[in-house]
Design a protein that fits this description.
- The chain is of the alpha+beta class and 154 residues long.
- The protein has a single domain, classed as Extracellular Endonuclease, Chain A.
- 27% of the residues lie in helices and 19% in strands.
- The chain has a three-stranded antiparallel β-sheet, covered by helices on one side. Strands 2-3 form a two-stranded antiparallel ribbon.
- A hairpin with an 8-residue loop joins strand 4 and strand 5.
- The radius of gyration is 16 Å and the shape is globular.
- 18% of the residues are buried.
Length: 154
C-alpha cells in the first residue's frame, strides 16, 4: 500500500529542544500497510492564550510557540462504530523527551519510550478545546475518548 500524508498541522517547533522535532511515530506506514488505512491528526496545544510567546521578525506573520503537541492515530476495526485510537501528548519542554535522546546516536526510540506520552482523547480535547470522533454514536465516543492507551498496536 502506498503511504501518503496530508498535513494541516505539523508538530515542528523552532524553539523546542531539537529532540522534540525528531520524535516520530515510525510505525505509521507499517500500520497503514497492515490495517489498510490509518488516520493521523496532530497539532499544537496552547494552554494560556494570555501568555503566548511568539516568533517572527517584523513584517512576517507571527507564529505562536505551543506549550505541547498532540498526535492521534485512528484505525478502523471490524466494528465500524468502534475504531481503535492511540493518543499522544508531547509537552514542549518535557525532560522525558530530552532524556530519551541524551547520548543516543541515531535518535530512535522504542515502543516503551512512546508509552511515556500516551494520553486519552478526553485529555487532549480538554487541552485543545477540540472535539474528536464526533461522527460516532455518543456511547462509543464517550467510551473510546476516556481510555488512555497502554501499548502500541502490534
Amino acid at each position: 500500500m502506498q503511504y501518503s500524508c496530508q498535513c494541516y498541522f505539523w508538530p515542528f517547533c523552532p524553539y523546542s529542544p531539537p529532540s522534540i522535532n525528531r520524535l516520530r511515530l515510525t510505525q505509521t506506514p507499517q500500520w497503514a500497510d497492515e490495517y489498510g488505512a490509518v488516520w493521523v491528526v496532530c497539532g499544537p496545544v496552547i494552554d494560556d492564550t494570555a501568555s503566548i510567546e511568539w516568533i517572527g521578525d517584523p513584517g512576517e506573520l507571527p507564529v505562536a510557540i505551543p506549550d505541547a503537541f498532540f498526535k492521534i492515530v485512528i484505525r478502523e476495526t471490524d466494528d465500524a462504530g468502534h475504531p481503535e485510537v492511540l493518543g499522544f501528548l508531547f509537552e514542549h519542554f518535557d525532560p522525558k523527551i530530552k532524556n530519551l535522546y541524551d547520548n543516543r546516536r541515531n535518535h530512535k526510540i522504542d515502543d516503551n519510550d512512546l508509552s511515556l506520552f500516551f494520553a486519552s482523547l478526553d485529555t487532549i480535547e480538554a487541552r485543545t478545546g477540540l472535539d474528536f470522533l464526533t461522527m460516532l454514536p455518543d456511547t462509543a465516543e464517550v467510551e473510546i475518548e476516556s481510555v488512555t492507551p497502554t501499548r502500541l498496536w502490534d
